[in-house]
Specification:
It is built from two helices and five strands, in the order ββααβββ. By secondary structure, the chain is an alpha+beta fold. It is globular and about 30 Å long.
Length: 74
């Protein structure tokens, strides 16, 4: 188990325990966590200034910030 603090925006923060086999992609697809943080779907996960790969294990992080991805207009 890994305890991870997840943030979105200036004031929204929760702390959850994740199994070692859960990935960043699992976090980004978890509607209950996104809802608790009032975060939209399609966020990216960032830790220490680096965008995280969806396959990365959540056990590698203690703090993750969700950021809304910029929409691309071509």
């Amino acid at each position: 188990m890994a305890a991870v603090t997840i943030r979105y925006g200036m004031t929204n923060e929760i702390r959850r325990d994740f199994d070692n086999d859960e990935s960043v992609g699992d976090l980004l697809n978890n509607r209950s966590i996104l809802g608790a943080l009032n975060a939209p779907e399609g966020c990216s996960a960032v830790s220490m200034g680096e965008t995280l790969d969806h396959g990365s294990s959540l056990g590698n992080y203690t703090s993750i910030t969700l950021e809304k991805q910029a929409s691309s207009k071509a």
